User: Fold NAD(P)-dependent dehydrogenase, short-chain alcohol dehydrogenase family from Trujillonella endophytica.
Amino acid sequence: MSGICEGRVAVVTGAGRGIGRVYALDLAREGARVVVNDLGGSNDGSGADTGAAQSVVDEIVAAGGTAVANHDDVSDWDGARRLVDQAVTTFGGLDVLVNNAGILRDRTLASMSAEEWDAVIRVHLRGTFAPSHFAAQYWRARHKETGAPTGARLINTTSASGLYGAFGQSNYGAAKAGIASFTLITAMELARHGVTVNAVAPVASTRLTEDVMSEGLRATLVPEHVAPLVVWLAGAESAGVTGRVFDVGGGRISVVESWRLGPEVTRADGVWDPAELGAIIPGLVADAAPNPDRTGRVPAPRP
Ligand SMILES: NC(=O)c1ccc[n+]([C@@H]2O[C@H](COP(=O)([O-])OP(=O)(O)OC[C@H]3O[C@@H](n4cnc5c(N)ncnc54)[C@H](O)[C@@H]3O)[C@@H](O)[C@H]2O)c1
Assistant:
C-alpha cells in the first residue's frame, strides 16, 4: 500500500471500535503499519475482550495492510509501556501515537460517585499521559541518537464537552479539557525533538453517542468524516501544525480558538477593595464575548 503515511508506524488506542477503528483502517490504507490497541470493554469501561482489536487487525490484513493487535489498558502504566514497546519491537520504531481510547459515565455532580469520577479521569487523562510519556521517551532517545528531528506525531482526543461544556459530563468534560491543555503544553515541550502535538474533538455516531443522537443525525455523522484529518495530521505534510485543537465531524473541520484574555481593568496600587468591584465587574463581563454554546459557536450579540 502507498499513501501519505507510507513507511510510518502508528499506534491507535481504543481502535477496536468506533472512531479509532476507522483511524486504524485509514492509516493502514495510507501505508502506515498499525498497532491496534483496544481493551475491549463496555462503554463505561467495565470488562475486556481481545476480539475487538483483533477483528480490526484482520480487516486491515484482509485489505492488504499491516497491523498487530494490543489488548493493554492504556491507563495502566506498564500496559502503556508495553504498547509503545510493541510498536518498536514489531515494526522497528514509532512515528505516530493517536490517543483515542475513551469511556463515559455520565451523572450530574450531586449524584456522581467517586468511582464514576475516577474511572473517567483515569481512562482519558492517565490513558493519554501514560502512552504519550513512553512515546516521548522513545522520540527523545531517537533524536539524541540520530541527531535528526523525529518528524513524529502525537494526536490526542478532546471533546466538545471539554471545550464548550455539556450537562451531566463534569467528569468527562474535565478530563477532555485537561487533554486540550495537555496538548498545548506537550506541543511546547516536544517541539525540540521535531514532534508535533495536536488534538481533535470529533463528532461521530458510535456506541458512545447512541443515547444523544437521533437516528437521522447518526446517519450523517460517521467516523469516516473524522479520520481524514487525523491521517493528514499523522503524515509528513502536517509538520508546521502543532499545539492546535480541531473540531471535526460531518465534513466540517474547524480550528478551535483557545481561552484568551478579554476586557480588563487594572488598579495602580494593586489592591482592589471588594466593595468597589460591584461597580466594575458586571460591566467587564458585559463587554466580554460570551462563552460559546455547546456546539462551540458564540451567540450573536443582542441588537
Ligand atoms: N463519538 C463522538 O461523537 C465523540 C465525541 C467527542 C469525543 N469522542 C472521543 O472519541 C474517542 C473515541 O470514541 P468513540 O465514540 O469511537 O467510542 P467507542 O466506545 O466506540 O470506542 C472507544 C474504544 O476505546 C476502548 N477503550 C476504552 N477504555 C480503554 C482502555 N483503558 N484501554 C484501551 N482501550 C480502551 C473501548 O474498548 C472502545 O473500543 C473517545 O476518546 C471519545 O471520548 C467521541
